[in-house]
Amino acid sequence: MTDEAEGGSFKHHVLEVESLIHDRVSSIREKLDYSEWNENYLHSIYKIPENIRDIEPKAFQPQIVSIGPYHRGEEHLQAMEKHKWRLLKRQLENPQIQLEKLVTAMTELEEVARASYDQLGHHHDSSQSFTEMMLLDGCFILEILDVSANGHQKCGYSFTDPVFNWRRALPAILVDLLMLENQLPMCVITELFPLLDKGSRGSVNELALSCYSSIFPWLQFRYPSGAHDGPHLLNLIREMLVSSLNLFHEPFDNKNIIYQKIRVHSVTRLRESGIKFVKTERKRLNDIRFADGKLYIPRLEIDDFTKPFFLNLMAFEQCFPWCSNEITPYMSFMDCLIDSSKDVEHLREKGIIYHTLGSDDEVAHLFNNCCKEMSYDRCDPCLAKVSVQVNEHFDKKWNRWRATLKQDYLKNPWVITSLFAASFLLLLTLTQTTYTVISYHHRRS
């Protein structure tokens, strides 16, 4: 091969390498462009991290209806799509509602709404498709809340309507609306509310409070003072729940404990130290207190609705950096108390836990797994104080000895009778011995 041919081959190779490097640099720069984070648009609607989803996959998967883009198009959710259009058509029969105004409002909110989703990007949907989704889902949510709070008759629906039948779809829909991946930005809902002529029925917050208070009657919800529009419906319900919690306590000396994980023994171990478990009639979740050897705990109901509700609340507390920790420490406290089905059985017998799951083992499994991937940076001061008091009681050996005496020896009436008889005979023997000694000294004197 000539020198000229070799030189041409070398130049060709260099050009190929330069072209390859240029393509790779361009690819990296393109990815860097999409890695920018705009702090003005903080994400609030997240895809559940896989380590948390593995706790209970079904709890994060909507069963009836898709809201927002994450589960849109999934086959098992398509049956409800035609009902969304039916409800929208029904709402547009009101002459006060103008479709043009609804579309205009959603178009203006598109950029903000897109920024609410952490894994959406700019190429998920066309602008028209995304705007249509916001309009359809927002109107659906408001109609569901309206009918749930005010009744189907007042809203003009039949009790046999397949969406608003309490025996069928409606309860499951209300639970689906509280799943983190199934949220719509609250700004969309509040913008649509006056345009749908629903102002006479109260505010969005009032409708939500009335609706979910009936779904979870054993929980106490309270409209938060100084409330403002939060990121979505799940956060709104969480704020109403947190606002009812006992967050104002007497001074607590050991302040370092609130920055540590809760550590208490299981129900079985605590009973060995004589601690009794008592159901309190109060509905505030964290209204747990310890006094005179008794641990007072409010009622907790666990069913197919409350399980996904609490898990999604905890997932939101994990993902949203501006969210405080109130639900996660409570669940962690209950996780510490429950190690096995035996612990669940005792709490159930005391009326503290009521569940409709298959067995006590399932409840124990739920609590033992729900907090594995969850963390919190600050513990509830109320629960922190209770955990310190309980552990101090448990660490006193006298309490365990006394409890062992009661549980092992004083439960059987025959054992009690024998113990009483033995004590009586011992007393007689001591009396006789004392009398003999006194008589002996008296004769000598």
Explain what the structure shows:
- The chain is mainly α.
- The strands form 2 sheets. The protein has a 3-stranded mixed beta sheet.
- Strand 2 and strand 3 form a beta hairpin.
- Helix 4 packs antiparallel against helix 7.
- The longest helix is centred in the C-terminal third of the chain and has 32 residues.
- The chain is elongated and about 130 Å long.
- The termini are far apart.
- The relative contact order is 0.09.
Question: Secondary-structure blueprint of this entry?
Answer:
Elements: H1 3-33, H2 50-53, H3 81-92, H4 99-115, H5 127-150, H6 169-176, H7 186-195, H8 204-215, H9 233-243, H10 267-272, E1 276-280, E2 289-291, E3 294-298, E4 300-302, H11 306-319, H12 327-337, H13 341-349, E5 353-355, H14 360-370, H15 381-395, H16 397-409, H17 413-444
Parallel strand pairs: 1-3, 4-5
Antiparallel strand pairs: 2-3
Helix pairs in contact: 3-5, 4-5, 4-7, 5-7, 5-8, 8-9, 12-14, 13-14
CA(first)-CA(last) distance? 141 Å
Beta-strand proportion:
under 5%
Biggest pleated sheet: 3 strands, mixed
Subunit arrangement of the protein: single chain
Task: Write a short abstract of this structure.
This protein is mainly alpha-helical. The chain has helices spanning 3-33, 50-53, 81-92, 99-115, 127-150, 169-176, 186-195, 204-215, 233-243, 267-272, 306-319, 327-337, 341-349, 360-370, 381-395, 397-409, 413-444, and strands spanning 276-280, 289-291, 294-298, 300-302, 353-355. It starts with a helix and ends with a helix.
